[in-house]
Design goal:
The structure is a single chain. By secondary structure, this protein is of the alpha/beta class. It contains five helices and eight strands. It has helices at residues 56-69, 86-95, 106-112, 119-127, 154-167, and strands spanning 3-5, 9-14, 21-25, 30-35, 49-50, 102-105, 140-141, 172-173. Strands 4-3-2-1-5 form a five-stranded antiparallel sheet, with helices on one face. A three-stranded parallel sheet has the order 7-6-8.
Length: 175
């Protein structure tokens, strides 16, 4: 089912090997991508109304997601609208630089951003990532190697990390 908000934003359901996802977009850009069963009250999808969906961006996102799940795509090349604070934007930019098949820690990201005490702020920015998988917040783990926190669920985080590591020539944990 396709849905519309503010005459500009739409959603559609996308099936993946690890569950259905809700893809929100305008006519040219990806706005968000969330697992359908992990939507929160802060996700405004209830305000959307029905509409048709014939946008090229949907086909592009689905095509790249399919390539990712087939183990072919290691980086996404999609136009994204990222709405967040300056700090969140910095975290999301760093997330996109974590190599496919590798992980880093919240504390390493905080250090890379110049603030050793920003672990919790980094974790919060990760949790507010609106474009799951595409902006790979699943690649961030605790300093001890535990799979801490993931809005899509720890089992999905484990699946995504294992999927990438098994399809990566240079896979493995690092931080």
């Amino acid at each position: 089912m396709d849905v519309k908000l503010d005459n500009e934003a739409y959603t559609c359901l996308v099936e993946t090997p690890i569950g259905a996802m809700i893809l929100a977009h305008n006519s040219t850009e990806l706005i968000s991508l969330h697992f359908a069963d992990s939507l929160t009250a802060s996700t405004p999808f209830e305000k959307y109304t029905n509409s048709s969906n014939n946008h090229a961006i949907v086909n592009l996102v689905i095509s790249q997601l399919n390539e990712y799940f087939e183990g072919i795509r290691t980086r996404f090349d999609l136009p994204i609208i990222s709405q967040g604070t300056l700090f969140q934007q910095k975290v999301w930019n760093k997330l996109q630089r974590i190599p496919y098949g590798q992980t880093t820690s919240y504390s390493k990201l905080a250090k890379d951003l110049g603030d050793l005490k920003a672990n919790r702020a980094v974790a919060t920015a990760n949790a507010r990532n609106q474009v799951m998988i595409i902006i790979p917040c699943h690649r961030v783990i605790s300093q001890t190697g535990n799979l801490a926190g993931y809005v899509g669920g720890i089992e999905r985080k484990r699946w995504l990390i294992n999927h990438e590591q098994s399809n990566s020539k240079n896979g493995g944990l690092f931080f």
